[in-house]
Amino acid sequence: MEISAAGRLEVRITTADVGKRVSVRSLIEHGPPGEKFTDTVGVLTSWDSGVLRITRKNGESVLVRESALVAGKVVASAPARRRGPAASYGELARVAARAWRPVESESLGPWELRAAAGFTRRANSVLPLGDPGVELDEALTAVRRWYAGRGLPAYVQTATGAEGTQEALGAELERRGWVREVTAELWVGGLAQVADLGPAPSGTECAGTDVVLSREADEAWLTRYRRRGLSEVALKVLGSGPSVWFATVPGDAEDAGGGPAAIGRCVVDGRWAGFAAVEVDPALRRRGLATAVMAALARRALDEGASAAWLQVEEDNAGARALYDRMGFAVHHAYHHYRAPRSPAPAGDGSP
Hints:
Layout: E1 21-27, E2 37-48, E3 51-55, E4 61-65, E5 69-74, H1 89-98, E6 104-108, E7 111-115, E8 126-128, H2 136-148, E9 155-160, H3 167-175, E10 179-190, H4 191-195, E11 212-214, H5 219-224, H6 232-238, E12 243-249, E13 262-269, E14 272-280, H7 289-303, E15 308-314, H8 318-326, E16 330-339
Parallel strand pairs: 14-15
Antiparallel strand pairs: 1-2, 1-5, 2-3, 3-4, 6-7, 7-8, 9-16, 10-15, 10-16, 11-12, 12-13, 13-14
């Protein structure tokens, strides 16, 4: 915290620092005995009527009464990551968007309105990269009208925790009653170290694992994919991206019920390789099959000139997070899907 020459803690932030990353210490009003202070680090997203709103890197908003402030200062906007390739939020957001394309999209300034008949929030939400060019309320009205015209709920995808992310927009959505339904994280890592994880040495349970790569998701691959009853729209989304590869580990009819033992998907886009849909038959987990799938896809991506890797994982998926951590991945930023309030959509023809 900020300490003056006289050794006193000082508050060195003002309302002019809204939008900056800050670190504050405040009094605990009703905390456990003996605990008087709490520290909060995040983006100062508002300071109204004597209350500060600070958005942490995971998207959580913390309200701090101005009268409870003990100390505060502006801190670096983007702390250095523990490991992983350097990349801006904007670069990764666009790479991730190209790897999971909607079947219909429309621009509202630099905002992209995306729709795919409801198949995944990522393909049915707004990606707001910049100023829409109109007042926020007008933009959100246009968004809700556009999705209502397609029979879909309106979602806006925002990000937190890195330089250039959208803490302020998330706070404004919350103030307008939009509800954060899902939070996930985008992780980055070196591609070569993933490729080096396979094939497994002889004598291990997954030694000689046969990973078959294909340009299309065949019927066998789809039987292992966790989403059932896939429509033609969903298949188009799965097959979208600059250079898409599907991996399959054929299963034993007795051990895996005739379906694949494991599957995965990778999209190569310039220096980036994005991994998704890595799934293993529940009866065959903890045998290194997920690692074998990702290693095979990584080697293919290296052959196409990629050098960095990314993937997305939900915050409550402890098993996947532990695996990716062992592979050398690290969190770059969190992203969130906000759903519009459940009230009548604005009238109109569905066009912004």
